[in-house]
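Worked example (supplementary).
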Amino acid sequence: MHLHELPNGRDGPRVSSARGWVGLGIGIAALLVFTYVVLPLAKRLPLVAPVMEVIEQSDIPTSQYWYTQSEETDAAVSSVRNALRRAEKRKGKD
Amino acid sequence: MAQAQRDEVVVDKGKWEWSELWRKEDWWAIWLGSLALVIGLIVFLPRPPADMDAKLTSAEATKVAEEARAPFQTVEWHQANDTITGMQARREPHGRTIARWLATPERWRNNPVRSLYLSEEEAANRRAEAVPKFEAAKEKTGAALAEAKAAQEAAAAANFQNPELNSRAEAAIEDWRTARAAEAKVRTPATAESFNRIPYLIGMMILFMLFFAIGTPFMGIRTGGFIAGFWFVFLLAVVSEVIGNQATLNEYGFGSIIWAILGGMLISNTVGTPNFVKPALQTEYYIKTGLVLLGAEILFTQIVAIGIPGIFVAWVVTPTVLTLTYIFGQKVLKIESKTLNITVSADMSVCGVSAAIATAAACRAKKEELTIAIGMSMLFTAIMMIALPTFIVAVDMHPVLGGAWIGGTIDSTGAVVAAGAFLGQTGMFVAATIKMIQNVMIGVIAFGVAVYWCTRVECVEGQRVSKMEIWYRFPKFVLGFIAASIIFSLLIASMGAAGDVMIDQGVLRGFSRPLREWFFILAFASIGLSSNFREMAHHFKGGKPAILYVCGQSLNLMLTLLMAYLMFFLVFPEITAGLME
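After joint prediction of all chains, the assembly is encoded as:
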């Protein structure tokens, strides 16, 4: 990536100190509204509710982005391997 | 004429200097990544779980004997299998100590302090609340096991020749497994312990700071400046981890990475990134070191996990969609930046965040381009995680087909597992396995993109690039990434069952993975702190990246469904039948 210019490069638009802090406050407030108002409300939508209920009950960490982070994937792979091994053996017997 | 024109073009010819080995961050990423992996091997390999070989041999022998004895997986078979899967080097005392140090903040809902600190009194309250549930679950598991054993004995008395008794035993064993899984879920709160993450986080900050500071004087970075600014980047990384572990945000898949970028951007675009922090914003240094560690987690032995259908769904459709989406972006949408095009295409077709990171680093994309790709991936993943399983259940699609469709199209592993869980256990197992096989593909994709960029993109049209020129231009960290993948794949394959216990469940999941997660979050905090909204808007001009993502994903959805149907229902129906048993 082209990032060598960063440490000496631009650091965002120049804003006055007061305006900057207000902007930061607005950003934090937006995050709070998103987390505690928008997303919980979206959870109640008829299309969204059933899936979110399963996620909540199963306690699945949905933000994992790689398979080694997921214990469920580990169990899934082991189970799939065993199922295929059993099917293979049964086929051999037949 | 053409020759004359070509001669007039100034071509930037690279040249190799041995000093690159200690001056360039690509090489430092390889040295530091290798150092971390070697430390992991030194810590874990000499300390296997007690009687590991004997237990593994005995459990494997029991499984074979039980498979020969009964037409279904017996209680003894499951117990032997639990012995094998439960044996993990990271659960040993040294593994637990490392986990305590490298742990990220805990999940919380209303009070963010709970992610970093839990008093003994609060832990006791949690335990008191959960223990009755746990005891009840334990009792239920015990009763279910007794029933399963009785049903199995009845089937065994008939020499496993009575189909009715066999199915009754199989159903009773299934009930026992379900009860056991439910018990495992309530065990965690029932054994809750107090914790204080803050001293460990301070310790990790110092260790990471020293670890990365090693290379700074050689690369021309002011070491003092780097050390002075590092704490701020680490603090933003910790805050992002805390936000990303908020229960509601986590349920939608909005994890720490996006908060590191947004948090950093919010600071840099409002109050401004403090000057003293800038020497520590070494995005490439962190990300490439993390990528070398990620390489070790790309185990080629995993691609056969679900047989040939999985290879076709994940390894044929994925590169096809990637190539067609990239061509569509160039020829139809005419996206100005090829690096943005390939980063979004890889992120959408392969596996989201990790593919975006690897591809962006391999083709030297701009930080804003990586941010756009990751932002879109997270947004569309949240939408697809809900829409796709809802549609699959509504049309009553077969769980194996639905699972394969989800695994091949939804970007991130966590969202795939969540969407798959909506289809039931089989659907989730198939979805997660397909996703894992697709994850492994990023090694090949990153290498292919790096070579393609050196030979075709970063050169004058019609110019023939010599082999040495390719070597000069090649992003060297990719060599470390590929080497780590090959070495660890061979290591795990040569060790047999012990490889899973010691390497996969020890060095990788117990050491290099948490390190890699920290390095990536440091990289994204750096990206956020050095980005500005205007630059981002420029790259998003005309909404072309979003159009590219939607069109590419539509093609991905169609091709994956078609290939999954062909493979699991027309060509290999016996595999589907085996998975459904």
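Two points are worth noting when inspecting this output. Residues 120-157 of chain B form the longest helix (38 residues). The first strand of chain B starts at residue 117 and ends at 118.
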